[in-house]
User: Fold this.
Amino acid sequence: MKSYRKELWFEVPTRRAFINITSDVERALAESGISEGLALVNAMHITASVFINDDEPGLHEDYERWLEWLAPHEPVSRYRHNANAAREDNGDAHLKRQVMGREVVVAITAGLLDLGTWERIFYGEFDGHRRKRVLVKMIGE
Ligand code: ZN
Assistant:
């Protein structure tokens, strides 16, 4: 069995963003030399997500509005986390991450990511302005 590990790094200049990382994962798969197996892709931070959905700007705007409705960033005083954790203002980002998920697992078939027609892999940032990592781990043969 082959095993492959890679970290993808991001420094998002805004507080929140959705980034299509499908081609980064495809590149990692090519590097791995694996043709049959599984790929795990997970955010290594508790205020960021990895999820699969459509690469459609309207949908991403809907996510942004829906997540702000669920867990508005302001006023930051509404979150107990911000009061407890010294100088933090990211209480909303922890909640948004929970909703959008930590990781995805994608099947590898015939050397390709076995995604549905409209499925793309995204990095969801909810507390940007700093360097963050995504782990790609692949196993198979
Ligand atoms: Zn925090």
User: Anything to note?
Assistant: The chain has one domain: 2-140. The pocket of zinc ion is lined by residues 81, 85, 88, 90, 94 (CB under 6 Å).
